[in-house]
Amino acid sequence: MLTPDDFQYAIETTRVIHEPDRRIDTFGATRFEFEILSEPMDCVGKVCVRRGEVEAQKPQLIKPAGFNEIELEGFDPKVLRVIEHFEEQGIDLSFLQYGFQFKRSDVSRELIHDRLESVSEKALEAVRFSGNPSLAIIQSIDDAWEVGIMKFTLDMIMKSQDINRFDLKRRGLL
Predict the structure, then answer these.
(1) Closest listed residue to residue 64, CA positions, set 47, 50, 84
(2) Distance CA 54, CA 129 (A)
(3) What is the pLDDT of residues 38-91, one digit of tens each?
């Protein structure tokens, strides 16, 4: 089990060394492949390579009209007047909700007898040669490699939001 310090360390040290060429699709699910490279704590000169997939569901548009359905626990229902106030000021409170499915059953694990730098270079070379637009190569902490996946997915959300909003506006949905 990860401690808060383990989690924080994993967040701070995880690096995406190659990100996919694509972003999260606005109108359909998007599948990303990943390779997580990490050095096991008890194995000098070895690198663990995990391969798998992350699927992002189609972003859901949440509009202020839907806020009436939100239960505000402990708040007076009149607090929804704040939403009306923002709308009167011309502030768009619509937001996109993203969902991911981590297909853990598809994760494979391989132990390579080499240095992390060398394995990283070979992985980058392979993705450049293949041209796979949906592959991410990530360096992370071995015991907290799943945190690396979560950091990658959050990064993809942040990089996709503007594109998704543009697509929705262009179609008159926002």
Answers:
(1) 84
(2) 22
(3) 999 888 889 999 999 888 888 887 766 655 555 555 556 665 566 666 667 776
| pTM of this structure | 0.77
Given a contact cutoff of 8 angstroms between Cβ atoms, the answer to whether 106 and 4 are in contact is: no
| Among 44, 43, 13, residue whose Cα is nearest residue 145 | 13
The DSSP secondary-structure symbol of 113 reads S
Q: How far is CA 3 from CA 6, 104, 128, 142, in A?
A: 5, 22, 36, 14
Alpha carbons 26 and 161: distance in angstroms, whole number: 9
- Compute the half-sphere exposure of residue 169: CA atoms within 13 Å on the CB side of its CA: 9
Q: Burial of 56 by CB count in 10 Å (0-12 exposed, 13-18 middle, 19+ buried)?
A: buried
**Residue ranges covered by each domain of the chain:** 12-57+100-170, 60-97
CA–CA gap between residue 37 and residue 72 (Å, rounded): 42
- On whether the CB atoms of residues 57 and 159 are closer than 8 A, the answer is no
